[in-house]
Amino acid sequence: MNKMNLIKHLTSFLIFAGILSLLSGCSIDFLNSEDAEEKVQQLLGTWSWQSSSSGTGSDPNGEPTSTSGPSESDRRENTYTEDGGYTSIQTNAEGEELGREQGSWSLDDDELTISFGSAFSIKYDIEITDGTLTRTRVSNEDGFEYWLRDRWSKK
């Protein structure tokens, strides 16, 4: 094979390899956007509070120092709407509203951010499995590390 043919074959191969890498990159992005959309669809709707636990340190799989759950005087529901709205309502056993918070939410991979205007935002790592939403966050305030984890069931 002469030099000219070798250069043509090498050029053709490089062009083919470049096109192939572009196409595979697009399909990966497409799959990632499908996964993201699926997570959003799973999150949308109303969730009932099942339990909360907290502990010191940065390992949310450690032994909790505190646990709680719904009671006669404390029931909670969170709603995530398609337009990015977030509402949290706390009621008692009779259904009387004890508190309401409203804000917005966004999801980036498995990180849920709930924002309350420009006042503040809370970030959670989330997992949704079999109709259960688990939200976990680790915080460090003035050198004191603690974690919070709560579980919600889909209504």
Could you walk me through the main structural features you see in this protein, from its secondary elements to its overall organization?
It is a single chain. The protein is of the alpha+beta class and 155 residues long. 26% of the residues lie in helices and 50% in strands. It is built from one helix and nine strands. An eight-stranded antiparallel beta barrel has the order 1-3-4-5-6-7-8-9. A hairpin with a 2-residue loop joins strand 8 (132-141) and strand 9 (144-154). The longest helix has 41 residues, at 3-43. The radius of gyration is 24 Å and the shape is globular. It starts with a helix and ends with a strand. Mean pLDDT is 83; it is low at 8-14 and 16-31.
Shape: globular
Largest sheet: 8 strands, antiparallel, barrel
Radius of gyration: 24 Å
Number of helices: 1
Number of domains: 2
Strand order of the largest sheet: 1-3-4-5-6-7-8-9
Q: CATH fold name of the largest domain, please? A: Lipocalin
Overall pLDDT confidence: 83
Would you identify the regions where 5 or more consecutive residues have pLDDT less than 50?
A: 8-14, 16-31
List the helices and strands and how they pair.
Layout: H1 3-43, E1 45-56, E2 66-68, E3 75-80, E4 85-91, E5 97-108, E6 111-116, E7 120-129, E8 132-141, E9 144-154
Antiparallel strand pairs: 1-2, 1-3, 1-9, 3-4, 4-5, 5-6, 6-7, 7-8, 8-9
In short:
This protein has 155 residues and is of the alpha+beta class.
